[in-house]
Amino acid sequence: MPTQLPLCPRCEEDWVHSYRFKDDGSTFSLCTECDSFWWPHDALEIPNPRFLDDVVAARLGVPGNPWSAREWAEAIEPVGEGC
Ligand SMILES: [Zn+2]
């Protein structure tokens, strides 16, 4: 059950959840409503969000939409309770 998660400061439509990349375990915060992305050292403030697509595309070295040939679940996963 979700506890007190921060409300997304950009869209205010969803909570910001903890996720991680499956390849190297890097953790980050993500709003799945507007795809705003924060590294742990980024402040959860409106001017700061990166976008998930941009970060993933940069990691993979591919231009544009990185999801055309893959699913979110292949690259990232939510960080469960107690992790
Ligand atoms: Zn949002």
Helix content estimate: 10-25%
Average pLDDT level: 86
Dominant shape = globular
The structural class is alpha+beta
- What order do the strands of the largest sheet run in, or round the barrel if closed? 4-3-2-1-5
Task: Report Rg.
Answer: 13 Å
Largest sheet: 5 strands, antiparallel
How many distinct domains? Answer: 1
Count of runs of 4 or more consecutive helical residues: 2
Structural key phrases:
83 residues, alpha+beta, 5-stranded antiparallel sheet, 2 helices, 16% helix, globular, binds zinc ion, Transcription factor zinc-finger domain-containing protein
SSE layout:
Layout: E1 17-21, E2 27-31, E3 36-38, E4 50-51, H1 52-60, H2 72-75, E5 76-78
Antiparallel strand pairs: 1-2, 1-5, 2-3, 3-4
Bound molecules: zinc ion (ZN).
Q: How does this structure look, described?
A:
By secondary structure, the chain is an alpha+beta fold. The protein has one domain (17-78). The protein is 16% helix and 22% strand. It contains two helices and five strands. A five-stranded antiparallel sheet has the order 4-3-2-1-5. The longest helix is centred in the last third of the chain and has 9 residues, at 52-60. The mean pLDDT is 86. It binds zinc ion.
